[in-house]
Design goal:
single chain, 269 residues, mainly beta, twelve-stranded antiparallel beta sheet, two-stranded antiparallel sheet, 2 helices, globular
């Protein structure tokens, strides 16, 4: 909204990059977004954003850069990049009826009460499981019939199956980890420390029904993992790329009362 109102004269309606650091656990409820213009330029402009809750608790800080992707010009070269391993073929007309031979609708989202944001999407995953334990492929669309727009991409970049869960054995066990007593609560919470997002393609104003997402971890070690997210449209063009740095901690920490650091009033994740 800032680039459509206060900075409308810049004529830079499209988000180009987002860089966010998550300082603390956020909570459901009201929040305040503070924006500071950092650099206003002819081709790109950058703002600094701070998300605050409870008046003084800064929880997310970052930078957002805008441009006009419709008027971009300059050198373009073919790189011949492709996803590897290649994702399974999908017929979206059959996917719409949940009749595709390679993909199936996830009838029930795991731990939906715990991961409420996931209830807004329909997820279609490979019939016979993911191609590798370290990655997850999915076709997605909104449950209520809405279409994906540019404003949806930040949400899409954070909505996918957790690759840690793919390492469970046939009994649902993870190596060296006990199953929680309450089967409705997952073992883990995956708080994001850092998220960056680059927009590669402008979606049409009316939006699109389907997006393909691949998320991949290169290393899961000592309770921390990296995640690479690739978002493609229906014709296979890159729409956005995202990178995450994520912790893997006990799920109880997401619902526990905030702990105070003596003398500072600060809370820990």
């Amino acid at each position: 909204m800032h680039f459509q109102t206060t900075l409308s004269a810049q004529n830079q309606p499209h988000t180009l990059t987002v860089y966010l650091t998550f300082l603390r656990r956020t909570s459901s409820g009201n929040y305040t977004v503070t924006i500071r213009d950092t650099k206003l330029g002819r081709q790109t402009s950058t703002i600094h954003v701070t998300v605050t809750q409870d008046s003084t608790r800064e929880e997310v800080v970052g930078y957002i850069t805008h441009s006009n992707l419709a008027t971009e010009s300059g050198i373009s070269l073919a790189t011949n990049w492709t996803l590897f391993p290649p994702p399974l073929a999908a017929d979206l007309a059959l996917l719409d009826k949940d009749e595709d031979q390679n993909w199936a609708l996830q009838k029930k989202n795991p731990f939906a009460a715990f991961r409420k944001a996931s209830q807004n999407l329909q997820f279609y995953h490979p019939h016979n499981g993911q191609l590798q334990k370290s990655l997850a492929d999915e076709w997605i669309r909104f449950s209520n019939g809405e279409r994906f727009t540019m404003a949806s991409l930040g949400y899409v970049a954070d909505m996918w199956p957790q690759v840690v869960e793919a390492h469970r054995d046939s009994n649902g066990q993870l190596p060296g980890i006990e199953k929680p007593a309450d089967s409705k609560v997952p073992n883990f919470w995956y708080p994001t420390l850092l998220l960056n997002l680059e927009i590669k393609k402008v979606l049409p104003p009316e939006g699109v029904e389907w997006l393909f997402v691949r998320v991949r971890a290169k290393q899961i070690k000592n309770g921390r993992m990296d995640l690479e997210v690739v978002i493609l449209d229906e014709v296979g063009d890159i729409v956005a790329l995202s990178q995450h740095v994520t912790l893997v901690v006990g799920a109880e920490r997401n619902v526990a009362e905030r702990r105070k650091i003596a003398g500072s009033g600060e809370s820990k994740i």
